[in-house]
Write a structure and sequence with these properties.
about 130 residues; alpha/beta; Rossmann fold; five-stranded parallel β-sheet; 4 helices; about 40% helix; globular
Length: about 130
């Protein structure tokens, strides 16, 4: 399995730290970049987004746009990496989330088993 580059956008600092701790245990060789707002996330994506294997995006975050807007920007840049929305809120309507985004929706609170499966699926995709 190759090393993953994972981008995580989460404004809840405790949850952000928890995800980093979990990824450190489950993916010790992988690199995790974390952001708490969409503006910093977008600046990173504009420069290095094509290198990211997995985008873990909260939906409601501070900044110019929400996580859905970040995902739309990722696709507008023709980055086809995996996008997973992680949100405590219900999945928005299809008018807000186009199938062309090619995403997965995980409702918070997620389980460690769900998180492990996300990582396994991502490896299957990038290692193929």
């Amino acid at each position: 399995m190759r090393r993953l580059l994972i981008l995580h956008l989460e404004d809840d600092l405790a949850l952000k730290d928890t995800v980093l701790d979990l990824l450190t245990v489950l993916e010790p060789e992988s690199e995790v970049v974390q952001f708490t707002n969409s503006d910093d996330t977008l600046r990173y994506i504009e420069k290095s987004g094509a290198e990211v294997d997995l985008f873990l995006l909260d939906v409601r975050v501070p900044g110019e746009m929400d996580g859905i807007g970040v995902a739309k920007r990722i696709r507008a840049l023709h980055i086809d990496s995996r996008i997973v929305f992680m949100s405590a809120y219900q999945r928005p309507s299809t008018s807000e989330l186009s199938d062309s985004l090619d995403f997965q929706w995980v409702k918070k609170p997620w389980t460690i088993d769900q998180f492990t499966r996300l990582l396994e699926q991502t490896h299957a995709r990038v290692d193929a």
